[in-house]
Amino acid sequence: MTNAANPSSNSQAITPALTRWILEQSEAGHDPASVLQAMQAAGWTEAVALQALEQTLKQQLDVAQARAATPRLPPSQPLPAPLLQGSPLYVDAGDRQVAVLMHLQNPSVVLFGDFLSAEECEGLIAAAEPRLARSLTVMTQTGGEEVSVDRTSDGMFFSRGESALIQRIEERIARLLNWPLLHGEGLQVLHYRPGAEYKPHYDYFDPHEPGTPTILKRGGQRVATLVMYLNEPAQGGGTTFPDLQLEVTPKRGNAVFFSYAQAHPSSRTLHGGAPVLAGEKWVATKWLREGEFH
Ligand SMILES: O=C(O)CCC(=O)C(=O)O
Ligand SMILES: [Fe+2]
Protein backbone atom coordinates (compact mmCIF):
# COMPACT_ATOMS: atom_id res chain seq x y z
CA MET A 1 0.00 0.00 0.00
CA THR A 2 1.26 3.52 -0.78
CA ASN A 3 1.50 6.00 2.11
CA ALA A 4 -1.62 7.97 2.92
CA ALA A 5 -1.65 11.73 2.29
CA ASN A 6 -0.69 13.48 5.55
CA PRO A 7 -3.15 15.78 7.29
CA SER A 8 -2.00 19.39 7.13
CA SER A 9 -0.29 20.43 10.39
CA ASN A 10 -3.17 22.56 11.69
CA SER A 11 -6.26 20.80 10.36
CA GLN A 12 -7.74 17.39 9.83
CA ALA A 13 -9.91 18.50 6.90
CA ILE A 14 -10.59 15.71 4.41
CA THR A 15 -8.69 16.69 1.25
CA PRO A 16 -9.24 15.65 -2.37
CA ALA A 17 -5.79 14.02 -2.21
CA LEU A 18 -6.93 11.85 0.69
CA THR A 19 -10.17 10.90 -1.07
CA ARG A 20 -8.21 9.95 -4.20
CA TRP A 21 -5.79 7.88 -2.18
CA ILE A 22 -8.63 5.99 -0.46
CA LEU A 23 -10.21 5.20 -3.86
CA GLU A 24 -6.84 3.95 -5.16
CA GLN A 25 -6.39 1.65 -2.19
CA SER A 26 -9.90 0.31 -2.51
CA GLU A 27 -9.45 -0.28 -6.25
CA ALA A 28 -6.12 -2.03 -5.52
CA GLY A 29 -8.08 -4.45 -3.32
CA HIS A 30 -6.96 -3.30 0.16
CA ASP A 31 -9.60 -3.92 2.80
CA PRO A 32 -11.08 -0.96 4.74
CA ALA A 33 -9.41 -1.99 8.02
CA SER A 34 -5.91 -1.81 6.56
CA VAL A 35 -6.69 1.45 4.76
CA LEU A 36 -7.88 2.89 8.09
CA GLN A 37 -4.70 1.71 9.79
CA ALA A 38 -2.50 3.33 7.13
CA MET A 39 -4.40 6.61 7.50
CA GLN A 40 -3.89 6.62 11.26
CA ALA A 41 -0.20 5.85 10.73
CA ALA A 42 -0.01 8.96 8.49
CA GLY A 43 -1.42 11.11 11.32
CA TRP A 44 -5.19 11.20 10.76
CA THR A 45 -7.34 10.85 13.86
CA GLU A 46 -9.44 7.72 13.97
CA ALA A 47 -12.70 9.75 13.75
CA VAL A 48 -11.64 11.69 10.67
CA ALA A 49 -10.11 8.63 9.02
CA LEU A 50 -13.35 6.70 9.54
CA GLN A 51 -15.44 9.57 8.22
CA ALA A 52 -13.25 9.96 5.12
CA LEU A 53 -13.35 6.22 4.49
CA GLU A 54 -17.09 5.96 4.93
CA GLN A 55 -17.81 9.00 2.77
CA THR A 56 -15.54 7.89 -0.05
CA LEU A 57 -16.68 4.28 -0.13
CA LYS A 58 -20.35 5.30 0.06
CA GLN A 59 -19.93 7.58 -2.95
CA GLN A 60 -18.28 4.75 -4.85
CA LEU A 61 -21.12 2.42 -3.89
CA ASP A 62 -23.78 4.93 -4.98
CA VAL A 63 -22.21 5.24 -8.42
CA ALA A 64 -21.90 1.44 -8.77
CA GLN A 65 -25.52 0.96 -7.68
CA ALA A 66 -26.82 3.55 -10.11
CA ARG A 67 -24.82 1.95 -12.93
CA ALA A 68 -26.31 -1.43 -12.12
CA ALA A 69 -29.88 -0.12 -11.82
CA THR A 70 -29.91 2.15 -14.87
CA PRO A 71 -29.92 0.37 -18.17
CA ARG A 72 -27.21 2.33 -19.97
CA LEU A 73 -28.19 3.95 -23.20
CA PRO A 74 -25.98 2.62 -25.97
CA PRO A 75 -23.21 5.19 -26.53
CA SER A 76 -24.59 6.13 -29.94
CA GLN A 77 -28.08 6.87 -28.55
CA PRO A 78 -28.71 10.52 -29.38
CA LEU A 79 -30.16 13.02 -26.95
CA PRO A 80 -32.34 15.99 -27.74
CA ALA A 81 -29.98 18.84 -28.69
CA PRO A 82 -29.96 21.96 -30.82
CA LEU A 83 -27.44 22.10 -33.68
CA LEU A 84 -24.76 24.38 -32.29
CA GLN A 85 -21.87 23.33 -34.55
CA GLY A 86 -20.19 26.45 -35.90
CA SER A 87 -21.52 28.55 -33.00
CA PRO A 88 -24.57 30.07 -34.74
CA LEU A 89 -26.22 33.12 -33.17
CA TYR A 90 -29.63 31.81 -34.24
CA VAL A 91 -30.98 28.30 -34.74
CA ASP A 92 -33.71 27.55 -37.25
CA ALA A 93 -36.75 26.17 -35.43
CA GLY A 94 -38.95 25.95 -38.51
CA ASP A 95 -41.27 28.90 -38.08
CA ARG A 96 -38.86 30.98 -36.01
CA GLN A 97 -35.18 31.86 -35.71
CA VAL A 98 -34.34 31.24 -32.07
CA ALA A 99 -31.40 33.08 -30.48
CA VAL A 100 -28.66 31.12 -28.71
CA LEU A 101 -27.71 33.25 -25.70
CA MET A 102 -25.43 30.86 -23.82
CA HIS A 103 -24.51 27.22 -23.70
CA LEU A 104 -22.71 24.95 -21.32
CA GLN A 105 -21.35 21.67 -22.70
CA ASN A 106 -21.34 19.36 -19.72
CA PRO A 107 -24.05 19.00 -18.71
CA SER A 108 -25.65 20.38 -21.82
CA VAL A 109 -27.49 23.57 -20.78
CA VAL A 110 -28.60 26.02 -23.47
CA LEU A 111 -30.33 29.35 -22.95
CA PHE A 112 -32.52 30.42 -25.88
CA GLY A 113 -33.79 33.93 -26.51
CA ASP A 114 -37.04 34.85 -28.20
CA PHE A 115 -38.26 31.27 -28.32
CA LEU A 116 -41.89 32.36 -27.83
CA SER A 117 -43.49 35.62 -28.89
CA ALA A 118 -45.25 37.80 -26.30
CA GLU A 119 -48.60 36.79 -27.86
CA GLU A 120 -47.75 33.09 -27.57
CA CYS A 121 -46.81 33.56 -23.89
CA GLU A 122 -50.09 35.36 -23.21
CA GLY A 123 -52.04 32.73 -25.15
CA LEU A 124 -50.55 29.92 -23.06
CA ILE A 125 -51.27 31.71 -19.78
CA ALA A 126 -54.85 32.49 -20.80
CA ALA A 127 -55.51 28.88 -21.84
CA ALA A 128 -53.89 27.45 -18.69
CA GLU A 129 -55.30 29.80 -16.04
CA PRO A 130 -58.84 28.38 -15.78
CA ARG A 131 -57.42 24.85 -15.51
CA LEU A 132 -54.85 25.38 -12.72
CA ALA A 133 -54.74 23.21 -9.63
CA ARG A 134 -52.17 22.91 -6.85
CA SER A 135 -49.18 21.12 -8.39
CA LEU A 136 -48.93 17.43 -7.92
CA THR A 137 -45.56 15.74 -7.90
CA VAL A 138 -45.41 12.24 -9.32
CA MET A 139 -45.09 9.98 -6.30
CA THR A 140 -42.38 7.59 -7.39
CA GLN A 141 -43.16 5.32 -4.44
CA THR A 142 -46.42 4.28 -6.05
CA GLY A 143 -46.51 5.91 -9.48
CA GLY A 144 -49.46 8.04 -8.27
CA GLU A 145 -49.51 11.79 -7.67
CA GLU A 146 -49.63 13.86 -4.50
CA VAL A 147 -49.64 17.47 -3.35
CA SER A 148 -46.06 18.36 -2.50
CA VAL A 149 -44.59 20.91 -0.08
CA ASP A 150 -41.51 21.14 -2.32
CA ARG A 151 -43.59 22.61 -5.06
CA THR A 152 -45.82 25.48 -4.02
CA SER A 153 -46.83 26.48 -7.54
CA ASP A 154 -50.13 25.72 -9.29
CA GLY A 155 -49.95 23.69 -12.46
CA MET A 156 -51.76 21.95 -15.29
CA PHE A 157 -50.97 19.82 -18.32
CA PHE A 158 -52.13 20.44 -21.86
CA SER A 159 -52.66 17.39 -24.05
CA ARG A 160 -50.25 17.10 -26.92
CA GLY A 161 -51.56 18.98 -29.95
CA GLU A 162 -54.72 20.10 -28.17
CA SER A 163 -54.85 23.52 -29.86
CA ALA A 164 -53.21 25.19 -32.86
CA LEU A 165 -50.99 27.23 -30.49
CA ILE A 166 -49.84 24.14 -28.59
CA GLN A 167 -49.24 22.23 -31.82
CA ARG A 168 -47.15 25.08 -33.25
CA ILE A 169 -45.00 25.31 -30.11
CA GLU A 170 -44.53 21.53 -29.99
CA GLU A 171 -43.42 21.48 -33.63
CA ARG A 172 -40.98 24.30 -32.90
CA ILE A 173 -39.53 22.39 -29.93
CA ALA A 174 -39.20 19.18 -31.99
CA ARG A 175 -37.38 21.07 -34.73
CA LEU A 176 -35.15 23.10 -32.39
CA LEU A 177 -34.09 20.08 -30.33
CA ASN A 178 -34.09 17.50 -33.11
CA TRP A 179 -36.35 15.21 -31.15
CA PRO A 180 -39.58 13.60 -32.39
CA LEU A 181 -42.72 15.45 -31.36
CA LEU A 182 -44.25 12.13 -30.26
CA HIS A 183 -41.43 11.65 -27.72
CA GLY A 184 -42.58 14.72 -25.80
CA GLU A 185 -45.00 14.86 -22.88
CA GLY A 186 -47.87 17.33 -23.01
CA LEU A 187 -46.84 20.90 -22.12
CA GLN A 188 -47.05 21.70 -18.44
CA VAL A 189 -47.78 25.24 -17.23
CA LEU A 190 -46.81 26.33 -13.71
CA HIS A 191 -47.94 29.48 -11.92
CA TYR A 192 -45.95 30.71 -8.91
CA ARG A 193 -47.45 33.33 -6.58
CA PRO A 194 -45.20 35.52 -4.40
CA GLY A 195 -43.15 33.23 -2.15
CA ALA A 196 -43.86 30.12 -4.20
CA GLU A 197 -40.96 27.95 -5.33
CA TYR A 198 -40.01 24.57 -6.70
CA LYS A 199 -37.21 23.15 -4.56
CA PRO A 200 -34.19 21.68 -6.37
CA HIS A 201 -34.99 18.31 -7.93
CA TYR A 202 -34.13 16.09 -10.88
CA ASP A 203 -36.65 15.72 -13.69
CA TYR A 204 -35.79 12.08 -14.45
CA PHE A 205 -37.59 9.33 -12.57
CA ASP A 206 -35.47 7.83 -9.79
CA PRO A 207 -34.56 4.29 -10.95
CA HIS A 208 -34.54 3.12 -7.30
CA GLU A 209 -38.17 4.04 -6.62
CA PRO A 210 -40.64 1.17 -6.83
CA GLY A 211 -43.18 3.15 -8.89
CA THR A 212 -40.66 4.05 -11.61
CA PRO A 213 -41.05 0.95 -13.86
CA THR A 214 -44.78 1.74 -14.22
CA ILE A 215 -44.03 5.36 -15.16
CA LEU A 216 -41.38 4.27 -17.69
CA LYS A 217 -43.92 2.16 -19.62
CA ARG A 218 -45.31 5.39 -21.09
CA GLY A 219 -42.27 6.34 -23.18
CA GLY A 220 -39.19 5.49 -21.12
CA GLN A 221 -37.10 7.93 -19.13
CA ARG A 222 -37.16 11.66 -19.41
CA VAL A 223 -33.92 12.67 -21.10
CA ALA A 224 -34.26 16.45 -21.43
CA THR A 225 -36.25 19.47 -20.26
CA LEU A 226 -37.17 22.80 -21.84
CA VAL A 227 -38.45 25.46 -19.41
CA MET A 228 -40.09 28.42 -21.18
CA TYR A 229 -40.65 31.71 -19.36
CA LEU A 230 -44.11 33.15 -20.04
CA ASN A 231 -43.88 36.36 -18.00
CA GLU A 232 -41.44 38.29 -15.84
CA PRO A 233 -41.67 38.20 -12.06
CA ALA A 234 -40.70 41.58 -10.55
CA GLN A 235 -37.95 39.87 -8.52
CA GLY A 236 -36.69 36.33 -7.91
CA GLY A 237 -38.05 33.21 -9.53
CA GLY A 238 -34.93 32.27 -11.51
CA THR A 239 -34.19 28.68 -12.43
CA THR A 240 -31.24 27.58 -10.33
CA PHE A 241 -28.76 24.76 -10.98
CA PRO A 242 -27.04 24.30 -7.60
CA ASP A 243 -24.34 21.92 -8.90
CA LEU A 244 -23.41 24.38 -11.65
CA GLN A 245 -23.76 27.51 -9.49
CA LEU A 246 -25.93 28.81 -12.31
CA GLU A 247 -29.12 30.86 -12.13
CA VAL A 248 -31.19 31.55 -15.23
CA THR A 249 -33.17 34.81 -15.23
CA PRO A 250 -36.87 34.26 -15.98
CA LYS A 251 -37.18 36.56 -18.96
CA ARG A 252 -40.38 36.37 -21.00
CA GLY A 253 -40.03 34.44 -24.26
CA ASN A 254 -36.67 32.92 -23.27
CA ALA A 255 -36.28 29.20 -22.62
CA VAL A 256 -33.64 27.10 -20.88
CA PHE A 257 -32.86 23.60 -22.12
CA PHE A 258 -30.91 20.85 -20.38
CA SER A 259 -30.42 17.13 -20.99
CA TYR A 260 -29.40 14.14 -18.89
CA ALA A 261 -28.17 10.92 -20.49
CA GLN A 262 -28.05 9.20 -17.13
CA ALA A 263 -30.87 9.17 -14.60
CA HIS A 264 -28.34 9.87 -11.87
CA PRO A 265 -27.11 12.83 -9.80
CA SER A 266 -23.82 12.59 -11.70
CA SER A 267 -25.78 14.25 -14.53
CA ARG A 268 -25.51 17.42 -12.40
CA THR A 269 -28.95 18.50 -13.60
CA LEU A 270 -30.29 19.28 -10.13
CA HIS A 271 -32.40 22.40 -10.63
CA GLY A 272 -35.26 24.32 -9.06
CA GLY A 273 -37.48 27.36 -9.35
CA ALA A 274 -36.14 29.90 -6.82
CA PRO A 275 -38.73 31.61 -4.61
CA VAL A 276 -40.58 34.42 -6.34
CA LEU A 277 -39.69 37.47 -4.24
CA ALA A 278 -42.08 39.95 -5.87
CA GLY A 279 -44.74 39.58 -8.52
CA GLU A 280 -45.62 36.22 -9.98
CA LYS A 281 -44.07 33.74 -12.37
CA TRP A 282 -45.46 31.63 -15.19
CA VAL A 283 -43.49 28.92 -17.00
CA ALA A 284 -44.27 26.17 -19.46
CA THR A 285 -42.21 22.99 -19.25
CA LYS A 286 -41.70 20.40 -21.98
CA TRP A 287 -40.23 17.06 -20.95
CA LEU A 288 -38.73 14.83 -23.60
CA ARG A 289 -38.78 11.06 -23.28
CA GLU A 290 -36.51 8.37 -24.73
CA GLY A 291 -39.40 6.80 -26.60
CA GLU A 292 -42.86 7.63 -27.82
CA PHE A 293 -44.99 9.09 -25.01
CA HIS A 294 -48.61 8.02 -25.08
O1 LIG B 1 -39.90 27.07 -12.58
C1 LIG B 1 -38.75 26.78 -12.90
O2 LIG B 1 -37.89 27.64 -13.08
C2 LIG B 1 -38.34 25.34 -13.00
C3 LIG B 1 -39.49 24.41 -13.34
C4 LIG B 1 -39.10 22.98 -13.27
O3 LIG B 1 -38.07 22.62 -12.76
C5 LIG B 1 -39.98 21.93 -13.81
O4 LIG B 1 -41.07 22.24 -14.29
O5 LIG B 1 -39.58 20.74 -13.74
FE1 LIG C 1 -37.74 20.44 -13.08
Task: Give me some keywords for this one.
6 helices; dioxygenase; binds 2-oxoglutaric acid; oxidoreductase; alpha+beta; Oxoglu/Fe-dep_dioxygenase_dom; four-stranded antiparallel sheet; binds fe (ii) ion; Pro_4_hyd_alph
What would you say this structure looks like, in words?
α1 (16-27) packs across α3 and α2 runs antiparallel to α3. Strands 1-2-3-14-10-17-8-7-4 form a nine-stranded antiparallel beta sheet. It is elongated, with a radius of gyration of 23 Å. The chain has 294 residues and is of the alpha+beta class. β2 and β3 form a beta hairpin. It is built from six helices and 17 strands. The structure holds 2-oxoglutaric acid and fe (ii) ion.
